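Below is a filled-in request sheet from our internal design queue. Each sheet records the structural input a requester submitted and the sequence that came back. We keep these sheets so that new team members can see what a complete request looks like end to end.

REQUESTER: design group, bay 2
PRIORITY: normal
MODE: inverse folding
CHAIN LENGTH: 151
BACKBONE (tokenized):
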């Protein structure tokens, strides 16, 4: 399946139970040029095909500092970075197919696995799950078809 076919499939799937005429359906596009684009395509595809998938956001957040005005004096508190509650190295997508955990790490271009990600990969594989690295849509799709055939 190409990304263009995926987009057409998604629109039909999403609006199947509505009376929206086909000419009024929104256009959907996917791209595997960025990590965000490939992640979105993968999650939508798995959900449309009877699997469970969620994107895992493991980035922390920056909380801006406070400013207090005391008459003529302005006090500024420094902002701070708060770590995510997720474990370091957790995969970008957690999915389930036929009752089996599938962890998917999205890597674009020269991006490589960290040591934490390699550790998570080993743990998932030892526990009987499947860990895959998705670099392009076509490469993901071929791997997913093999996983979907596992009994």
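RETURNED SEQUENCE:
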């Amino acid at each position: 399946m190409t990304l263009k076919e995926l987009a057409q499939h998604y629109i039909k799937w999403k609006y199947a139970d509505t009376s929206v005429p086909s000419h009024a359906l929104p256009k959907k596009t996917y791209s595997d040029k960025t990590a965000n684009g490939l992640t979105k395509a993968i999650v939508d595809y798995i959900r449309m095909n009877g699997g469970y998938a969620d994107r895992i956001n493991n980035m922390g957040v920056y909380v801006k500092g406070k400013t207090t005005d005391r008459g003529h004096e302005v006090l500024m508190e420094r902002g701070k970075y708060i770590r995510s509650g997720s474990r370091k190295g957790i995969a970008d997508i957690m999915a389930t197919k036929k009752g089996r955990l599938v962890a998917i790490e999205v890597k674009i271009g020269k991006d490589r696995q960290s040591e934490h990600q390699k550790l998570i990969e080993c743990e998932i594989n030892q526990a009987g799950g499947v860990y895959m690295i998705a670099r392009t849509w076509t490469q993901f799709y071929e791997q997913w078809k093999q996983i979907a055939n596992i009994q």
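SHEET NOTES:
- Helices lie at 3-14, 35-48, 115-126, 137-148.
- The chain has one domain: 3-148.
FILED BY: M.R.
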